[in-house]
Specification:
Elements lengths: L3 H13 L25 H11 L3 E5 L5 E6 H8 L5
C-alpha cells in the first residue's frame, strides 16, 4: 500500500532528484500492511485504527485482495450515528 505520507516522502526526495518519479512504487510503499477482514467487528476495527494511528485501513478477502477501505470517518459514523 502507498499512503499520502509515502507520497510526501517522494515529493521531498524529488526536490533533490526529479528522477525519483520514475522509481518503482515498491521503493516507497509500506510493507507488512495492517488490514481488516470483512467479518471483523467494529470494536476490532476501532482498536486497530487507534493503536496503529492510521487514518484508514484496507479490508481484504480470503485471497488478500482489497475489497474495501475503512476510514476514521467511517468508524465515527458507525459509532455515533446522527440523531434527529
Amino acid at each position: 500500500m502507498i499512503t499520502k505520507g509515502d507520497l510526501l516522502h517522494v515529493a521531498c526526495d524529488a526536490l533533490d532528484d526529479p528522477g525519483v518519479w520514475q522509481a518503482p512504487v515498491s521503493r516507497f510503499m509500506a510493507h507488512g500492511v495492517l488490514a481488516l477482514r470483512p467479518a471483523d467487528s467494529l470494536t476490532s476495527a476501532v482498536q486497530h485504527m487507534t493503536e496503529s494511528k492510521l487514518r484508514s485501513l484496507p479490508v481484504i478477502d480470503a485471497d488478500c485482495r482489497v475489497v474495501g477501505m475503512v476510514s476514521r470517518n467511517d468508524l465515527m459514523i458507525a459509532i455515533a450515528p446522527e440523531t434527529p
